[in-house]
Automatic annotation (TrEMBL):
Signal peptide positions on this chain: none
Organism lineage: Bacteria, Pseudomonadati, Pseudomonadota, Alphaproteobacteria, Rhodobacterales
InterPro entries registered for this protein in UniProt: ADH-like_N, BchC, GroES-like_sf, NAD(P)-bd_dom_sf
Protein name (Swiss-Prot/TrEMBL): Chlorophyll synthesis pathway protein BchC
Positions of the Alcohol dehydrogenase-like N-terminal domain: 25-118
Gene name per UniProt: bchC
Keywords: Oxidoreductase
Length: 313
């Protein structure tokens, strides 16, 4: 069995190739992928070569952990059947490439317990479940405050804001330095940080991945406030101790989403409390992946780039 897949041989060395797939086992599904998203976090770091050492990663690799498609083969014990529409958070199914992510391909073999059923009408938005689950994971759990300030109005920042409102909390303030990205707010305000005089935020969620602003964020906290690192940071993190000492600042790292996060955001989507509308700005055929990847990372107007695998040859 083979699939067309994005093959990243090294930094900025990317092509579409035909790769052999590992044969499915009894508990596996074979999924024909319709759409996959390009992550501007971890995938960008692999693209630039800045990704720090990470267990299970290396070159060559198939990137991507945002994929949606249709089950075409299912073991009898999986609980799935051909025709089911599913979200797939990547797959380690390639014979000749690392598959720590492995979602950017026309066909995937994956364990059934990794996928999530989605509504057939979601279309390309079905590939966004991982980001919605990431945002929910940062906010959910015992003694976790919802954000009153979110840094960055990319897809993750927008989802954090939408989930805050869906939780019935006061609308957060969102910082965005790019004027082009300040549009698209739904029930909250997006401002330039230079125009914000506040220094009493209780919970600041950083979705920018910019380690250089940590000192500024500490200065914006109320005493005992918390900074949640919701992005991915290739550089070492550091901050001046005296301001953090005076504020009794707390830092929390938001890790990868868990299964219950996918379940929770799926329920919010089904109820209409959460929407994924307006987050995808660019669609291209998978055959144009070589051009799509740099555009996703370098074009400031691109919030989310989606590859269409339906006609991949």
């Amino acid at each position: 069995m083979e699939a067309r897949a994005v093959f990243l041989n090294g930094p900025k060395d990317l092509r579409l190739d035909t790769l052999a797939l590992k044969p499915p086992g009894e508990g596996d599904l074979v999924v024909d992928i319709s759409y996959s998203g390009i992550s501007t976090g971890t995938e960008k770091l692999f693209w630039t070569g800045e990704m720090p050492p990470f267990p299970g990663s290396g070159y060559p690799l198939v990137p991507g952990y945002e994929a949606a498609g249709e089950v075409v083969e299912a073991g009898s014990s999986t609980g799935f059947k051909p025709g089911d529409q599913v979200f797939v958070p990547g797959a380690d199914c390639f014979a000749d490439a690392f598959g720590l992510f492995g979602g950017a391909a026309s066909r995937l073999v994956t364990r059934a317990d990794r996928v999530t059923r989605i509504d057939s009408g979601m279309g390309p938005e079905g590939a966004l479940l991982a980001l919605a689950a990431t945002a929910r994971h940062a906010m959910a759990g015992l003694n976790k405050r919802v954000p009153d300030l979110i840094v960055g109005h990319g897809v993750l920042g927008r989802l954090l804001a939408r989930l805050t409102i869906a939780a019935g909390a006061p609308a957060p303030t969102v910082w965005e330095i790019s004027k082009a990205r300040r549009s698209g707010a739904e029930g909250y305000e997006v401002i330039d940080p230079a125009d914000d005089p506040r220094r009493d935020y209780e919970a600041i969620y950083d979705a920018s991945g910019n380690a250089a602003i940590l000192n500024d964020l500490i200065g914006r906290l109320t005493k005992g406030g918390e900074i949640v690192l919701a992005g991915f940071y290739p550089q070492g993190l550091s901050f001046a101790f005296p301001p953090a000492f005076m504020k009794e600042a707390r830092l929390r790292v938001a890790a990868e989403w868990a299964r219950e996060d996918l379940t929770a955001v799926s329920a919010l989507l089904d109820s209409g409390a959460l929407s994924l509308n307006g987050l995808i700005t660019h669609h291209v055929a998978a055959e144009a992946a070589k051009l799509a990847y740099p555009a996703a990372f370098e074009n400031p107007d691109c919030l989310k780039m989606i590859l269409n695998w339906k006609d991949a040859a």
